[in-house]
Design a protein that fits this description.
heterodimer; A: 217 residues; mainly alpha; Arp2/3 complex 21 kDa subunit ARPC3; 8 helices; 2 strands; 74% helix; B: mainly alpha; 2 domains; 71% helix; flat
Amino acid sequence: MHIPDAFMPIWQGAIYWVIALVFVYISLRWAKNELNEEKLPLVAVLAAGIFALQFLKLPILMGTSGHLVGGALVAIILGSPFAAVFILTLVLIVQGIMFGDGGITTMGANIINMGVIGGFVGFYSFKGLKAATRSVPVSAFFAAWLACLLPALCAAVELWFAGTFPIEAGLLAMGIYYAIGGIIEGIVTVAAIYLIINVRPDMVDKNVLPEQTGAVA
Amino acid sequence: MIEELFDIERYAYRDSIIHRLDARAKIIVVFAAIIAIVSVPYSPIVFTVGVIFYLFFLVLWALTRLSPVVYLKRAIVIIPLWGIVILFQIFIKNPYYTQYTTVATLPFGIHIYAESILFAFILMVKFIITISFIILLSSTTKVQDLLDGGRRLGLPAEFALALGMMVRYLFVFGYMYRKIIQTLETKAFNPFDRKLPYRYRMRQIGYTIGTMFIRSYEQGERVYTSMLCRGYGRDCHLFLKKKEIKPSEWTFLIICLCFIVVIPVMAWFRQVTWF
C-alpha cells in the first residue's frame, strides 16, 4: 500500500503532507498525555511488530504493494485512533528512511492511508461492532478487514489523482488484493489480541477485555 | 528483513568521509535530492537530471568506501518489487499525454504505447534515484545518529524516543528470531514438511510468532526498566547536547544543495534532453 516517491507529483505529495501533519500533531498530543513509562515499551514493540508484519509484501500490478497494515490492531489495543496515527508514522519513517519502502515526498499520503484511515476505521468500526455483537473476536476481525481494505482503496484513488494508474483498474486490483489480504489481517489481529489478553491483560485497553477479565483487572 | 537490518547497521559503523559527516548534513542533502528529482515534471528532462544525479550519487558512494556490491544487494531487494508495478505502465494511457502511438498489440486487445513506455522509464529513473539516495543515507549513518540528527532538525522528542525504542525492539526481534529458529532446527521442525499435519504446523508457527512477540516485549521491558534506573526517561531527549556543524560540513552541505537545485533548474530552462 506504500506509495513510493515518483509515483505522485510533488504538489500532491505536499498537500497530503499538510493534511497528515494535522493528524500527526494531534497524535503527538495523545503521545504526550498517554505515553508513560509503562506504555512506551508497548508502543515501541507494537511499532516493531507492525514493521515486521508489513515487511512481507507482494507487488500489485495496477496499484502499489500488498501487505498487512496493522492500524486496527494498534488502535484497538491502545484504545485510540491517534495511537494508530502515531505508531504508523513511526513505522513509515523507519521504512522510508532506512529501507526505502514508501517515500519521503509521499509519506504524508501513506500516513493518511495507513495511519489515519486505517486507525479511525479500525477503531470506530470495532467500537460500533462490539456494541452491536458484544463479541471482541468478531468485531476485531471485521474492523481489521475494513481497516485493511479502505486505506487500499484510498491509495488507488490517490494514484488515480496522481495520474499513475486508471481508477477502475486500480480500485479493482487493490480492492481484490486487500479484500482477500484483509481476511489474513483480521485473523492476525484477532490472534494478536487473543494472545495479548491471555498473556498480558495489563497491556491492553480496558474496552477490549472481556467483562469478567475487565472486572478482575 | 532481519539480516538486512543487521547488515545496514554494520555498514553504518564503518569509517569514511561520508560516514563521519554530521547526520543533519546527510539528511538534508538526501531529502533535497529526492525532492528535487520528484519535482522535475514527467518529461524527458528527467533522464538528463537523473543521469547527472546518479553520477553525483556514485561520487558520494565512492567516498563512502563501501563496495558497490553493498549498494546493488540493497537495491535488488527494493527495485524489482516496484519494477514490476512500473512495468505495467506500458499498457496504460495516463493523463500526461494527449496522443498515443501503438507500438505493439497483444492478445485480448492489450496495447503497448510508445508514450507509456516513455512514462514508465521516467518513473523508473525517478524511483532509482530516490532509492539510491536512501540507501546512501541509511548505509552511512548509524540509527542513533539519524535519531539525534532528526532531533536536532526538529523531530519531536516523543517521536525520537519512541523511534529509538522501536529500532531497539527490531534488533531484539532479530535476536529472538535467530534463537527461536535455532531451537526449531534442533528439534527438526520444518514448517514446510508436508508429512506433518497442517493444523500442527500452523499451531507451532502461531506459538512461535506469539512467543517472539511476548519474549521480545518482556526482554525489552526489562532493559527499559534498567535504563530508567540509570536515569534514562521519556524527557531525556529534551536535553540533547548541542552540536555545531563544522565549517567543512557546511561547505559540503552548501555545495551539494547548490548542485541539487541548479541542475534541475538549468535542465528545465534550457530544455536539455540528452535522450
